[in-house]
Amino acid sequence: MQVRPLHMIALHIQYPHPVYLHCIGDSFGMTPKLTITSHPCDEGGWIWYVGGEIAETGIKRDAAEQQAEARQQLAELFPWVDFDSARSGSFFINRAEPKLPNLQRPDTAYLNASNNLIVTWPTKLTLTPNLGDSVSEELQRQQIVPQQVLSSEGTAKAGLAEEFQCPPIAAPRWQEMFS
Asked: Which of 15, 131, 132, 166 could cysteine-pair with 122, CB 3.0–4.6 Å?
């Protein structure tokens, strides 16, 4: 395993629509300038979860500097959005990734099967579909999934959830930030 430190930003904003995007910067490298996902808030509005290059370079900034940098970049990229009443927060986190030569970034989700244990993580949100496919293939390979929950292509159908208990879902980090 390798870790990559990040300084993520969460912004509680009253915006009428969810936003899911990658903002490509001036240099076309591996990392988008900003990556934003949206998550609904119980009290209305959205949490914009902001990562990308800003999160990677943000490890050199304290919380106030990181949030100011995020607001500046967001205001430049989205001039039609009012960020004045938005509440922001940030936190440091290490992204865990499979260890690759020269600290390269993985192209696929991580899956390691050993005896009756399957260890997985998607590495990042965009690799979650790949992780689902990999788990389905591994369950089929181990003949753990009953045939009736497999599609004609051999991948798991929606009925897979009925075969296994669903673990509880942890509260997102920003929920405690804005409560």
From this structure: 131
